[in-house]
Amino acid sequence: MLQSRIFPMVFALILGVLMPFSFAPFGLAILAPFALLGLLFLIQGRSPKFSGLLGLLFGFGMFAWGIWWIRISLIEFGGAPIILGILLTFLLAFYLALYYGILCYVVTKVRWSLAFKVGILFPLLAVLLEWLRAELFTGFPWLALGYTLTDLPVSTFLFPSMGALMASFWVYWLSGILFLMINALMKRRKEGFLVFIGQLIPAFFSMMLMGITLLISVNFISQKIEKIDEQLKVALLQGNIAQELKFNEAQYYEILATYLRLTDEVAESSDLIIWPETAIPSLYEMESNLGEHLRKLSRDQQTKVMTGIFTGGGKTVRNSIVTYSDEMRMYDQRYDKTHLVPFGEYIPFRSILSLFSGMIEIPYSDLTQGKLEQAPFKIQKEDGAALFAAASICYEAVFGNELRYQAKTANFLVNVSNDAWFGDSIGPWQHFQISRARAIELQREMVRATNNGITALISKEGRSMAILPQFKEGVLSVDVTSYQGVTAYAKLGDLFWAVLAFIGLVLGFFWHRYQYKK
What we know:
The protein is an alpha/beta fold. It is built from 17 helices and 13 strands.
């Protein structure tokens, strides 16, 4: 009895470990639906409780390996003991794994026919749970399966219509249809061709529900995306400041000198110069001399300097972006980060974790979040033309549903980041893939300035047009093309598709009930 349980448990864990290989930097997108296919066969015929356990192990294997890089910020830069850093990382992975446990439990618990459970319940409930994971406890939609599609041509159709998060539906749906086909083919000799087709009908119902809505959104909701003739010469600065030195007061002037030197190199030839997230490890309100210098530079060189910097004071400190004017401080533009990084900019459940007070000391780990809807930056060119940039800071790129508010009136996207917190791991590449998905969703080019990589220009198709190598100081000078027009996703967001998935589940329930009575 024990041996019969150990094998599927180990196999579920292995299948989960395979999942992160379908994301960047590995890019083996095909692994995701086949790993899910294996999970479906694994839970077939098992009790709901044991299926839930298998789903939990699958999810834990996926996230324990997929977000293993989080421990770096806790241990190497937060000073946490190794055991505590690993424990907190595993606790987060366990929480994220619960969603797969719930999925497998419900799929085996509900008394529907196999075709209805796998063809309707599995993909629709799975994408609803991914949406729920993006919303609960401030949300953590990292490794949502839709991102595995980013490098595939289908993303340029799906993402602008329904967003990368909700495009996860199609990965779950593909695994479900493969399961039904294989399962039906195994029984084909006994039950005949019509039964084989009948097994697939529920899956085509869920496909048609989402597919028809997709076509409607593309043809009737989205606006035409048009190129604007105005181009912007943008310089992206990558200072490559070691994270352990970034908040060292003795290094402050050296850090500042690095960015000022890089700025001087490109000021004359750039319309906009972007420094990375918290490039200035100080408060905006305390940096009056620096502000005056950058405003003078903007005025003399006919350029703008946009930088990451902390703002506020006392207990209210925010992670912000400031664009310095060429006139006076009152005309500076500012954006405050809305979504903060768990275990980086705030510690979840700090009241519980106060037991470990003094064991984790991450600088600025008690930040205050900004407002959800903020105005995009206005970039005035020398010839008088004005372009608008939608801003996001680091982790915020994960939340397309929020970035879309600015993007509706913006011509291009700006993301500043500091992935030095996560070292030479797969984390920064996963983050870069997510950023590329945002560019596709909103059909805007994105410029991305980071401390030590990945600094790049991303096309509206999600391609990397120009990039700096990681862990090297440098400047990336690019010509940014601006666009106007609003995608269906920018108008509808994630909630629309979540409601549609829920309606699909309700319709599936009544359809199955009707079929059962018939």
